[in-house]
Amino acid sequence: MTARAAITGVGVVSPFGLGRDAFFDGLAAGATAVGPIRSFDADSFPTAVAGEVPLPVIDPDALIAELGARGATRAAAVVEPLARGGALRDRKIAFGLLAAAEAWRHAGLGDGAGDRAAHLVLGLGLEQAFLDDFAPIFAGGAIRWDAEPGAPLPPTRFRTPVDACARACHRLLGLTGPTVVNASACAAGALAVAHAAALIARGTADVVVCGASDSMVNPLGIGGMSRLGAPSPRRAPDACRPFDRRRDGLAIGEGAAVFVVEAEGRARARGARALATVLGAGSTQDAYRATAPRPDGAAAAAAIARALARAGLAPADLGYVNAHGTGTPLNDPAECRALHRALGDHAARVPVSSIKGAIGHLMAAAGAIELAACVMALTRDLLPGTAHHRERDPDCDVDVLGPAPVARAVAHTLSNSFGFGGQNAAVILGRAS
Amino acid sequence: MTTRVIAAAAVSARGRRWRSVARDGAAHDLDGGPPPRARKMMTRGALLAALGLRDLAAALDRPLHDAGFFLGVGASAGPMEDVVPMLAASIGDDGFSLARFGRAGLAACNPLLAFQLMNNFTLCHAAIQEGVGGPSGAFFSRGGGTATALVEARAAIAAGDCAVAIAGGADSALHPVTWAELVRDGFAAGGLVAGEGCALVALAADGAPGLAVVESCALHHAGDGDTARLADVARGVVAAWATARDEAAAVVIAPWGDPPRRALRAAIEAAVGRAVVIDVSTTAGDALAASPALAWVAAVDRICAGLASRVLVLGAGVDGDLGVAAFALEAS
Hints:
B: Peroxisomal Thiolase, Chain A, domain 1
């Protein structure tokens, strides 16, 4: 007998603003939050638009106040050392803290030992590099490491550790359980939630704080992705047009989504409201190329099939698919082929949408925030649309919603996440029982 | 369900082999790996993982398209030959310039730099080279976290997601930025010897012939750098493991630097008194996220060599958690 994992708390930081309501309301309005980058001067960059969280500067005092407003009692003790050390330059740390505090409070968890025994499983993006930190030790075309000890640099210099956000969230919530950092690129957020549900099912944990945070809206993040040719070259709010005939690349986004996942029985016993249930998940590896997804979608389809099997569902039971839908020429048709392989005839009937046109591709956090969109679908009976989708590409032969959201009650949702490098994840949520 | 280690592989300062990883030495040989075109995209950690997986695949001699692959990975490590020209084009007498970076710095770097920087590519390159297509997860590790790879590989088999699951770690402490951090944080002064490597074990369930049995594996929170707390947690783990201890038991430790080393040794002594303790960070250097996995193969090696019937592995670093794995000789 395994325990079912219920989602009892959701926290979101998105390009629509701080908080899950801002995110849900933005999707419900069919709005778009992709626009000119404001957190640094990107004029000379090939890419100058992004789905940017409306916090151009992370101010420590404002962050402490925001965390305090979410009931976090350890905010100053956590944020002040990060600010002194220079680590808050890594935007995903603040996003993760805000989302974690909101989810914790939403779930009604507190300072009791049972709550604080929660495990933490976060998907996080790569280290943020601070290129300007190299200037004081760069001379004669080389890095002078011997000059580093005397250089005017903050304690956290050159880059932040990948797990800095997770450690900060752990301290903020006063957790006593172990921490797992999933570093599986764009699949990390979905894999983190799947991992949390597995910990519940195995009986390893009763409560898990899980989700993801990421920001590549920084010079090397935006520049490096541009160099790959992944973002749309157009400097327009509709840069990302998933499944559209005219699509020409992704829009980079940033943000976080964190959930409290707990054993259904525990949630019921303490009178917590379950928002959704994590029914099943699957993951696979393309094992194809470092630079492109497998065109036939076979490995992604296997992940979806595994999630269905784990959930004990048939394809026809799915009422909505939140697609990975990056808006790149290669991803979208490959994903549609995966859906046809995994769902058969139902692939042509089930509503499919991608929220990346509206908020951009949140990279490691994409899978988490897209599961938050699925929670909205299940709790508000509203399926998000596909912003900027006008004319479906014939190679993307699925029922693409959009750009407006659609009012419809569904029982089960599927969310796909496919990581750079070929890691695939599929997660199925169900309505709370 | 009994989970067995059915094959192992390691690349370390002790050589490209898993037997004797914590015993006698050998030359460092990185030949015979991925083709040059693929290597060009790989960080050092990714190359080590690709070599390790190639050796493991050869040992397994079976298709791996459905095998699971779970890896503890370390920090991004963009090749400095790509990073330095980018900085040179972006830094002038007035310091770093975003405008120069956008106009010239980006053009000076490898177009695939972003892929080189992504931590999960340590896993993905190897999976691509060997066609490993089952469930996967890349777990960032600064000590304890690599244990998650073993936990999840074992769980994937138990859940029926795959018949074979590969778990391990790959990392290098020799990257200049990583080494600068280790120096700045006092690890170098505290005796840390920079190492690098990759170690992998292939797991399977009932029916497969095995090198050793995985008795247990878990990740415990052990305080944020609080070595007294780490010692307390480790003492409890060792004491629980030692209840059925026999004379041929041993403990392999993978500490990240001196403070956790002392804490783990103190915990072992407090729990079981004098015991055979092998420290892979002193036999193979500190390979960071790879060290716990090197400790696993050292444990399996010890069992296969008849030097121990049960081996406990403890891995701890700066990430505040204690990774635990217990291996044993399979009862005949």
